[in-house]
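Case study B.
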Amino acid sequence: MASLLSLFVSLIPFFSWPAAAASPARDGVVGVIYALGTPDLPPPKKVADALVSAGVPRVLLIDPYPEGVAAFDSTGIRVTIGINNSHIPAIAKNSTEAFLWVGTNIQQPNVTVEAVSLGYSVYNGYPDLAPLLLPALKNLHTALTKADIDVPVTTCNSYDLVGSGFPPSKAEFNKSLAATYVKPLLAFLNSTRSPFLTDAFPIKLYRSGVVKLTSTGVLNFGADESSYLTDDATGLTYSNLFDSMVDAVVTAMTKLGYDDIPVVVSGTGWPSVGASNEPEASVLYAAEYNERLVVKQNMREGTPLRPGTTPLAYIYALFDDPRNKGDEFEGNWGIWTAELQQKYTIDFNPMNRGVGGRGLPGKKLLFAGWIVWVVFFSFFCE
Ligand SMILES: *[C@@H]1O[C@H](CO)[C@@H](O)[C@H](O)[C@H]1NC(C)=O
Ligand SMILES: *[C@@H]1O[C@H](CO)[C@@H](O)[C@H](O)[C@H]1NC(C)=O
Ligand SMILES: *[C@@H]1O[C@H](CO)[C@@H](O)[C@H](O)[C@H]1NC(C)=O
Ligand SMILES: *[C@@H]1O[C@H](CO)[C@@H](O)[C@H](O)[C@H]1NC(C)=O
Ligand SMILES: *[C@@H]1O[C@H](CO)[C@@H](O)[C@H](O)[C@H]1NC(C)=O
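Model:
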């Protein structure tokens, strides 16, 4: 089985990508989250073909099953397998389950599996599963290693574990979870050279009032550098909350003794519809945030704390999820419709990125008491 796998499964270790920054074939560092279980969608093969046409370089597949993973056969799209929380108990208790999981879901011809992630927001969201997560990750890692599949095994954490707003230098992991859970997880990730996955939703900090914004675009703190914020402890200047959230996680890990673990943003985005008291949830702002994020990330400038090391990021989500309708925060984050139409155009290809994402002239809109700068890329890019 091992030789079969090494023959057919094309595998790219995570650590190849920072080095790839210098290579001429520049893959985009921003991908999308595709929940295979979303109802009323076209078959996975159609979705995968549309992703290829749109130049999407990476996907995080949620609730994968064999045919769903196989849809990415020979597409060249790099796949991260996202295994649901409900599988944690079985994989933790019984390593045979881990082998079966790897064999049936990950052993696919010519699918480029980039990482495997087990569980979402387990430490702060699912206390019953928290003690089982690390044993399950270890079983999965062993199963993959025995099958000669050399990919990182990790878990998707919630930014709520850090929870802090600006500045990033003040960030630390939730004290009641840090010693018991987070530190042992970091030891595992460090020893297996695997990344720490966190979501990063600037809109949550913005809505909770943790960060006050007076004049802002929805990605950056503002359209011009005078509105950027400086972290006094480090002297580093931030143009946007996305970078500051990544650096907050880097800081929190460093405070626990791990300063070298890569960060991957396993969910970020902006809703295109919200309740009537949520004017910031709109197609206009969703387009601005996601379009500018992709351009900014594909410049590969890293973050102020880790210049030159650009975290991979996944946009939540490829599709709206009708199962979450009624929950304005969850239901309307899709960048495509179920008919595979783009709600707005995101250029995932780093080679076409036109004049870039910063310092562009903007249109000033007076809106809900904020001055919001909206940049229309279509005016400046082809
Ligand atoms: C495997 O996929 C790549 C694209 O990622 C393609 O170029 C290649 O032809 C495929 N190989 C086989 C044997 O199908
Ligand atoms: C994913 O796991 C959660 C928590 O265990 C569970 O409530 C949910 O039903 C699972 N979803 C799927 C699609 O298995
Ligand atoms: C572990 O799982 C396998 C496959 O589901 C099963 O055959 C076996 O009996 C399980 N072992 C234990 C100790 O539960
Ligand atoms: C830290 O985590 C605990 C357990 O999940 C939770 O009860 C508490 O509210 C969290 N603290 C903060 C400041 O978020
Ligand atoms: C993390 O891993 C590196 C490389 O294996 C090792 O040198 C370092 O001591 C580890 N850090 C900690 C805090 O264990």
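Residues 1-25, 354-382 have pLDDT under 50 and may be disordered. The remaining cases will be described in the next quarterly update.
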